[in-house]
Amino acid sequence: MPMHAFEFVLSILFLVFAYRLLQAWVANRSMLPPPDDAGRVEAMQRLAQLEERVRVLERIVTDERFELNRQFKDLGTS
């Protein structure tokens, strides 16, 4: 099926827009300063804290007593 002129123009505009967007992204990405060691250590400590909190929450949610308490609460509100 032949491409109409309107579709051709739209595809060219899309390609130009995508190229400019990619070009801007690459230019801005290279301008970001690399993270310093203190910031990296702080981020790693924060990540370790968040991982521990997720482990605790998983333990609570998968506990049988939690499910039983939730069922009792659901019965009380009905």
Summarize the structure.
With 78 residues, this protein is an all-alpha fold.
Commentary on this structure:
The structure is a single chain. With 78 residues, the protein is mainly α. The protein has 2 domains: 1-32; 35-78. The protein is 86% helix and 0% strand. The protein contains 3 helices and no strands. The radius of gyration is 27 Å and the shape is flat. The termini are far apart. The model has no long low-confidence stretch (mean pLDDT 83).
Structural class assignment: mainly alpha
The number of helical runs is: 3
* Major sheet characteristics: none
Low-confidence stretches: none
Q: What coarse outline follows from CA principal-axis ratios?
A: flat
How would you spell out the order of helices and strands?
A: HHH
How many distinct domains?
2
**Portion in beta strands:** under 5%
Kindly state the number of beta strands: 0
Distance between the termini: 62 Å
Supply Rg: 27 Å
